Inverse folding.
């Protein structure tokens, strides 16, 4: 029986840096110069230690179980301790994750899409190039009702970062 596939872990934002290098000192010969901290391990440290959240609350934010969060957090702390004690570089990369990002809806074609490039402002719909877009969090059922009454159909059309509300 094979193990269950690893569920993707939600990371709120990418780290502002990609790692750390030790200052001064020398590493022992033959030792690896770097420790690789996965994005989900970084997120667990950020939530539990920087944001001071308990493991239950952090696990909800990362969309994993509490025991899984505890395992991720323990691995992260062990890696960071190893880097500090042995003077190793820390590189933050990899892991089975997805970044949480803001979602938008086009009021013209009813396409909803996210903004994976958080630094760039959304100016138009990626599907119809319309400029009548709004933040999905502000989208109301009244707005959906108005859109439904318009006979706009783009059946089967999807954007790589979005989905269609077609009924």
């Amino acid at each position: 029986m094979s193990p269950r596939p690893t569920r993707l872990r939600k990371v709120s934002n990418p780290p502002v840096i990609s790692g750390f290098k030790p200052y001064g000192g020398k590493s022992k010969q033959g030792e690896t110069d770097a420790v690789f901290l996965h994005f989900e391990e970084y997120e667990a440290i950020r939530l539990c230690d920087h944001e001071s959240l308990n493991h239950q609350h952090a696990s909800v934010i990362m969309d994993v179980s509490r025991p899984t969060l505890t395992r991720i957090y323990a691995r992260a702390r062990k890696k960071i301790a190893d880097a500090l004690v042995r003077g190793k570089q820390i590189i933050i990369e990899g892991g089975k994750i997805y970044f949480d990002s803001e979602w938008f809806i086009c009021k013209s074609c009813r396409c909803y899409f996210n903004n994976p490039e958080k630094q760039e402002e959304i100016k138009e719909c990626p599907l119809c190039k319309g400029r009548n877009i709004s933040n999905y969090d502000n989208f109301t059922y009244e707005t959906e009702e108005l859109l439904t009454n318009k006979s706009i159909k783009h059946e089967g059309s999807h954007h790589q970062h979005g989905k269609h509300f077609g009924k």
Observations:
- Residues 22 and 87 are 6 Å apart (CA to CA).
- Residues 9-23+31-99 form a domain with the Arc Repressor Mutant, subunit A fold (CATH 1.10.10).
- The longest strand covers residues 34-37.
